[in-house]
Amino acid sequence: MPDGPTGKVVNHRKWSMTALQSVMESDESKNDVVKRMNSLARALEEHEDKSGPIRTVRELNHEQLKLEFFFAQKDTALKRGARDLHARKELKVAESKSCRVCEHGGEDEDAVKIQEGSQVAVEMLRDVRSQYEVLFNCIISDTDENLLFEQPPNFPYGN
Q1: Rounded CA separation 159/157 (Å)
Q2: Number of Cβ within a 10 Å radius of residue 109
């Protein structure tokens, strides 16, 4: 919540932030990247369940397809005429992708498929970690700028 007319927000670290910085810190995409990274890391660390990485990759892919399907439905609902026809085609493509993933879901896996699935999970984890590093570096650089150019609200020698 803004603290007075300055538009500053005070977070748990007692440093002042602008409203935009507060929103960026609580960003949904960052939280999604962290969630994906943690679930992939847990699946790869689990040694008793050999098909865990495959199942986790499928779940993450299915969540992504559900999100794409949701946006395709929303896009279709908002368009009319010739654009509606194109949006409906995209909706059908998204729906067919989602159905294929659901149908492929619960098969027993052999050793080769488990190895391939684990490799896909490792590559996906590497990609997600690189996304996280980019987000983390952006947050750190913003925090560094705040520390350099702004004083904390209760700084004893200021004001």
Answers
A1: 7
A2: 14
Q: Which amino acid, 81?
A: G
Residue type, 142: D
Q: Is 125 exposed, middle or buried (0-12, 13-18, 19+ CB in 10 A)?
A: buried
Query: What's the confidence (pLDDT) of residue 11?
Result: 43
Q: In this structure, what token pair is assigned to residue 20? A: 């935009």
Tens of pLDDT, residues 45-94: 887 887 888 888 888 888 888 888 888 888 878 877 777 777 778 878 87
Token output for 15: 């440093």
Q: Is the pLDDT of residue 3 over 60?
A: no
| Helix, strand, coil in percent for the chain, rounding step 5 | 75, 5, 25
- Between the alpha carbon of residue 102 and those of residues 68, 87, 105, 154, the distances in Å are 15, 23, 5, 55
> Tell me, what amino acid is at 111?
A
Query: Nearest Cα to 127, choosing from 70, 45, 61, 28?
Result: 61
Name residue, tokens 């913003």. Answer: 142
Establish how many alpha carbons lie within 13 A of residue 101's alpha carbon, considering only the half-sphere containing its beta carbon: 20
Contacts of 102 (CB under 8 A, 6+ apart): 62
